[in-house]
Amino acid sequence: MKTKINQEAIKPKQIDEIVRTMLDNVMMGIAMISPKMEVIWLNKTFKKWFPGVDAEKKPLCYRSFYLPPRDKICGYCPTIKAFKTGETHSSETDICVNGKIYNVIATPVKDEKEKVIYVIETVEDITERKQTEEEIRRTLERLRGAMEGTIQAMALTMEMKDTYTGGHQRRVTQLACAIAKEMGLSEEQVEGIRLAGIIHDIGKISIPIEILSKSGRISEIEFSLVKVHPQAGYDILKTIEFPYPVAQIVLQHHERLDGSGYPSGLSGEEIMLEARILGVADIVEAITSHRPYRSALGIDKALEEISRNKGVLYDPKVVDACLKLFSEKGFKFE
Length: 334
Known about the structure:
- The protein is an alpha+beta fold and 334 residues long.
- It contains 13 helices and six strands.
């Protein structure tokens, strides 16, 4: 059975008292402020949090208890903004008083002519939320540090086996991140490329050092072993829970647009954009730098290679960004 409320039995004064009681007991500080910055009314919570504020003393710059005095017109005061603009504003700076952190929202109340007659300030205690956010931030920093340490340890392990690969990975990462930024990729994508780049050849740890350091051209059988390294790298990384698709980027960085790459023969959009970027950076650095079986061919040869195979082997947008870096932005490997 529904309870019927006899609204006629409630007098206007009683309604005012009910509303006042409700406002007095909410877990937020509420204040009514006049256009002269006078305190018209405060609820009990506000008085409890800021016991020095007295609504009977007018005019009163009561915000001096938790913000610079209003006669100094602090630029971030939401109430002043609410009076000036006629719109709701919140504090841009958290207010800290006696170890507590508060947030202020100022809501204008207008008359029938749209003139602001007073502003309602709602003050919320956000101390616990801020403390939780800080704890989460610190935890994330620790996890990020652990992840970075793991990546660097892997890169160092590979470099101890093959010094060339270590330097190659660092330079490829430098160029790949520059390309990604030039293309306007998000910070998350750039970070994923950076982490993948640092260890993109980790799978070469499975290749005999005799092949990696061979001074002459390698045989077809030896090359077949080299072609396994993206898959080997993926197998090493796939069990690590990175916040980015690092393992997939490593797996695909030797795939080519026309399907002629390895290990899976992916083509076009089947290849992740991050892997397409890493692939271009990888080939440019490889041609530019010294290899055990040949001398460095130089940047001109490298740029000629990606220009000639733009849209065939390499993503056109990635190639354009790479060319722009060298021709207009003065990019150089460090």
